[in-house]
Amino acid sequence: MTVGVRFRTPRLVYARFLGDPPPVGSHVVVRQEGRLYLGQVRTPPTEGRPEGEVLRLASKDDLDRAVRLKEKAEDALYLLRALFREKGLPGKPLLCEYDLEEKALRVHLARLEEKKLPFGQIVKEARSRLGLRVELVLEGPREAAGLVGTLGACGMESCCSTWLQGFAPVSIRMARDQGLPLSPEKISGPCGRLLCCLAYEHPVYEELLRELPRKNARVCAKSGVCGKVVKHHPLAQAVDLQTPEGKVVTVHKSELEA
Question: How far is residue 80's CA from residue 30's CA, in Å, rounded to a whole number?
Answer without folding.
Answer: 26
